[in-house]
Every structure is written in structure tokens, then in C-alpha cells.
Design goal:
Layout lengths: L1 H16 L4 H4 L4 E9 L8 H16 L3 E2 L6 E14 L5 E14 L7 E12 L11 H24 L1
Parallel strand pairs: 1-2, 1-3
Antiparallel strand pairs: 3-4, 4-5
Length: 161
């Protein structure tokens, strides 16, 4: 009987203090999606608001991270740096490209922090030159969604490492 009690106590202490078991007993990592700013002006369209909203949706649906409004273990910030609009030859097809810099700060493991540039582009049909670009709102939304996916994949990779 004494051996069973000693074995139980030894097993409990081993699992309680073993560092490899910390993920089973530890808390979930938290993420704070901070400020997204714009250094560009694009026909009164706010890319910062859209990308922040899409990132929050991705984290809530597809990540094991817990979203917090402040003081998260991981902090994400971004700056929209530039956009390019170009025509393809003498055709009504145009291309839009967005460039954003993302700062990933891991407060628990500072070595995992990074600053990277992301870009995304989309082609769309520009019917005539008097048309407003927002007739092609789906193309612009697609660019922001593609950026969101690229950023979320990178965040997921580094947060789960």
C-alpha cells in the first residue's frame, strides 16, 4: 500500500513540475491587434480599418490565440506604405497593388519578434476612364483579403512555433 502512495505522489510531482507538460497546464497565448495606420490616401478608402477587421475575424475563427484589447502576449501593428495603380498596355485592364509593413512583437519570447513587408495585387477591368474605381470594389476587397491571409499565415507560423 505504501508503494502505491509513493508511486502516485512521484507521478503527480513529475507531471506537475516537468517543463514538457507546461503547454497542457499553461494558459493560452493572447494577441492584441494594435493600430493600423495609413501613409497613403486612396479615394477616401480606409484599408487600415478593413485589414484590422479581417485579421480579427481570422484570429477568432482559425487561431488558438485568444484576442484581447490590450496587453496581449503578441502585439500586431501595421502601416500601409504605398499603393500602385497601373494599366496593362492599351487595354482597360488595370492592376492595383498595396504594400504594408507589419510589426509582430512577442512579449513572452522577444527573439520571435519581426518586422516584414507584405504586398498584394489584383487585376480588374476598368470600363472607361470616367468610371469611378469603386465600381470595382470587389477587386479592392480581394487585395485586402489576400493581404490579410498572408499576414495571418505568418502570424500563425510564429505564434505556434
Amino acid at each position: 500500500m505504501d508503494y502505491k502512495n509513493i508511486f502516485f505522489i512521484f507521478t503527480f510531482m513529475f507531471f506537475s513540475f516537468n517543463t514538457s507538460c507546461i503547454p497542457f497546464f499553461g494558459k493560452k497565448k493572447t494577441i492584441e491587434i494594435g493600430e493600423f495606420t495609413e501613409k497613403i490616401s486612396f479615394l477616401e478608402k480606409s484599408f487600415a480599418f478593413d485589414i484590422k477587421k479581417y485579421l480579427e475575424e481570422c484570429v477568432k475563427k482559425y487561431s488558438s490565440l485568444e484576442m484581447v484589447p490590450k496587453n496581449g502576449d503578441i502585439l500586431i501593428k501595421g502601416v500601409f506604405l504605398d499603393y500602385f495603380m497601373s494599366t496593362i498596355g492599351n487595354t482597360p485592364i488595370q492592376k492595383i497593388q498595396l504594400i504594408v509593413r507589419i510589426n509582430y512583437k512577442d512579449r513572452l519570447e522577444p527573439k520571435k519578434s519581426w518586422k516584414k513587408y507584405f504586398s498584394s495585387s489584383e487585376y480588374f477591368l476598368y470600363r472607361n476612364y470616367e468610371d469611378n474605381i469603386f465600381l470595382n470594389e470587389p477587386a479592392i476587397d480581394q487585395v485586402t483579403r489576400d493581404l490579410t491571409i498572408k499576414i495571418f499565415n505568418k502570424i500563425s507560423y510564429y505564434s505556434e512555433k
